[in-house]
Write a structure and sequence with these properties.
Blueprint lengths: L1 H18 L5 E2 L7 E9 L5 E3 L6 E7 L2 E9 L5 E3 L4 E8 L2 E7 L4 E9 L3 E5 L5 E7 L12
Parallel strand pairs: 1-9
Antiparallel strand pairs: 2-3, 2-4, 2-11, 4-5, 5-6, 5-7, 7-8, 8-9, 9-10, 10-11
């Protein structure tokens, strides 16, 4: 029953977001769950900064409209270094747009969720910078490959 209510809530949120004419595109709120690696940041003036081989990922986990985000560092053996710090995150709809509202012991801020799929996420911050992420996971090496 709980999963039915969760699914119904996500479906309603999708319909509301679509009906309000938001630029947000996404399939399922559950797509937020997992490891995200930053690929690119685009500033409001169009300048782009590309990232290759990030040293840390964002791990996000949601239950309904609330969750958390932690910074994790991938290790060559497939594990992650993780500390005890986490930002709480909640989804909030404002003026027909969907935002991730982050909070930690130092600050609270929001970022607009512009795009979300099972492999891609784009967030827009208050300074009009677009953060482009790709879904990732533990480092994997096949037989014969060595980490350098």
């Amino acid at each position: 029953m709980k999963s039915f209510i969760h699914a119904l809530g996500c479906a309603v949120l999708l319909v509301i977001t679509s009906a309000c004419g938001s630029r947000t595109e996404f399939s399922e709120i559950s797509d937020l769950n997992g490891y995200w690696e930053i690929e690119q940041v685009i500033a409001d003036d169009g300048r782009e900064k590309n990232y290759t081989g990030s040293m840390s990922y964002d791990f996000m986990q949601f239950t309904d409209s609330t969750g958390f985000r932690k910074k994790v560092v991938p290790q060559f053996d497939g594990s992650f270094l993780v500390n005890d710090r986490a930002d709480s995150v909640r989804l909030k709809q404002i003026d027909g747009k969907l935002f991730l509202v982050f909070k930690n012991e130092f600050s609270e801020w929001k970022e607009e969720l512009q795009t979300l799929s099972d492999q891609k996420m784009v967030l827009l911050n208050a300074e009009d910078k677009e953060y482009h992420y790709k879904k990732t996971g533990p480092m994997q090496f096949t037989d014969g490959e060595k980490a350098e």
